[in-house]
Amino acid sequence: MSFLRSLASRAALPVMLAAASTSTALAQSPAGRAADSVFARARQLVVNGNGAAGRVLVDSMVAASEPDTPGYAEALYWRASLAASSEDAERDYRRIVVDYPLSPHAAESLFKLAQLESTRGDRASAETHLDRLLSEYPSYPDRSQAGVLLVRMAFQANDYARGCPVLQETIRSIPESNVELRNQLEYYVPRCASFEAQRAASATAAAESTAHANAARDSAAKAAKSRFSLQVASYNSKSGADALVKKLVARGYDARVVGTEKPYRVRIGHFATRSEAAAEQKRLKAKKIVVEIVDVGPSDR
Prior knowledge:
Blueprint: H1 2-28, H2 30-47, H3 51-64, H4 70-81, H5 86-99, H6 106-119, H7 123-136, H8 143-156, H9 160-173, H10 179-186, H11 189-225, E1 228-235, H12 238-250, E2 255-258, E3 264-271, H13 274-286, E4 292-295
Antiparallel strand pairs: 1-3, 1-4, 2-3
């Protein structure tokens, strides 16, 4: 489905580019200037408390405009901006971002939609529109504000995996002179540092756990096939055998206690052949560890 949408977008691109060019020409034409004057008058009526009259003016411009033209998108934007309810505003903003993505007001409509959705708690939709705004409209003047909104929503949901990359990108895009906005974002930086440290620790723990599991599996497989081992000592007490095993393991040897009652035997390694066991016996003797080659019984597998 995404492929078909992409294909459709490419097919429509020449038409949309032509529409954008027409929009620029229209804005510079007498008709465009006249429309701007009507929208300015409508906005002033709303500001002065006569919202009904202002919206009647804008509705008349929507009715007079041809659908699928830049003038129609312009009228939709002003109707959304001066709407009496958030539902009415959202309906027209949504039409702009869906049907007129090359309108000069498309990026602003995405931002307004995200703000409305965020206010009513629709985080998923708001994030979708902000992601699109940040990826498709790099020259949008309020891009930093869009990043701030996305960061705040992510952190409110404790979604650091999503919020931290946006935070870093947004901080980089804010001019040094905008101290207030930078301070708002840098407030979240310590949380990202903590999140990254925890994620690194979790990754390390997971890697160690996997390594231990693999080692245990390999050791068990080797033990199942082994016929010989090297016995270091035997003890009448389990604690003595455990103490020696602990020392040997600390030195890197595959040591273990064999037996559930005395004598408790301390052994090293599993070997499929006597020659393998003899070779290891020789290496241990060079390190002053005296061992004896023994047959591996069922209790030591």
